Amino acid sequence: MRASLIQVAVNDDKATKSVNARRERVSSLVRAEAGAADLVVLPELWTTGAFAYELFSEEAEPLEGSTFEAMAKAARDAGVWLHAGSIPERAASDSGSAGEGPLYNTSLVFSPDGELAATYRKIHRFGFDKGEAVLMGAGEELVTVRLPETVAGVTTCYDLRFPELYRGLVDRGAETLIVSAGWPDRRRSHWTLLAQARAVENQAFVLACASAGTHAGVPQAGHSIVVDPWGAVLAEAGAGEEVLRVEFDPAKVGVTREQFPALKDRQLGLAEPTRRA
User: Fold this and answer.
1) DSSP tag of 214
2) Domain ranges within the chain, ordered by starting residue
3) pLDDT at 12 over 80
4) Are 19 and 59 a contacting pair, CB within 8 Å?
5) Mind listing the pLDDT tens digit for each residue in 195-217?
6) Which H or E run includes 273?
7) Distance between CA 247 and CA 250 in Å, rounded?
8) Which residues lie across from 89 on neighbouring strands?
9) HSE-CB of 185 using CA atoms within 13 angstroms
10) Residue of 9, 38, 19, 53 whose CA lies nearest to 220
11) 45-71 average pLDDT score
12) Which residues are catalytic?
C-alpha cells in the first residue's frame, strides 16, 4: 500500500493565512498525489492552525461545508483514499439550527470516489484549562474505516498520549493507526517516542502526519513519521513542508501478531469488537 503524508506548513504570515487560499493549495497538493498514493493523510486543523484558538469559532464550518466539498473533490480527482486532517466543526444546536451548536475538532475521511467514509470527533482535547479543551466539545466514539488492504483507526494529535484509545481501536479490528496532528516543536521528542510506542504495543502500523510552520506563534514539530508493527521507522520527514511517501505491506501486521502473539496474553481491559464504520 502506498501512502503520502502531506506535511502542510500552516504559517502566520498574511500570504498563507486565508482559509480559502489554504483550501485551494491543499487541494492541489492532494491532486498531485494521483498515481503516487493509495492513501493520503493531512495534518490536524490545517485550515486555521492547531493553536490559533481565536480562529476556531470564526472559521468553524458545518460538517458538509466548504472544506468538506473541496476535500471530497480532491479525493475524487486524485483517485485516493483521503484522511483530510481535521476542521473546526460547528455542529447543529439541540433544536437542529445550523451554526448554533458546539464546536468539535472533526476529522474527515473520503473514499476515492469522493464519498464520505468516516468522521471522527477528537476525544482528547489539548489545553488543560484553556484553548481547545474549553472551546471544543469532546468526541465520544472510536472510529475505524475499512480501506482496501487494511482497517484503519482514526485519531488526532493529543490522542497519541492515551494508549487505551489505541487498544480500543485494535479491539475493533484496526491494523493501521492514523494520527493527524498539529504537534508543537518543543515536545517533538515525545511525538516520535509515542508514535513508536503505539506501533509496538499494538503491533500495528502507525502513520502520523504533523504540520510544519508556526501556528499562532507556536513552532510546529513537523517530522511526520511512519512506523511498522515492530517499531521500526520506515520513513520520517524533516521540519519543513514536505510530502512523505512510503510503501508498506499491511499483511505484516498479521504476520507480526502471529510470530509474537503478545496481544493474546492480555489480561486487562478486554473488549468485545464492535461494528466498523
Assistant:
1) E
2) 2-265
3) no
4) yes
5) 999 999 999 999 999 999 999 99
6) none
7) 10
8) 61, 104
9) 13
10) 9
11) 95
12) 44, 122, 157
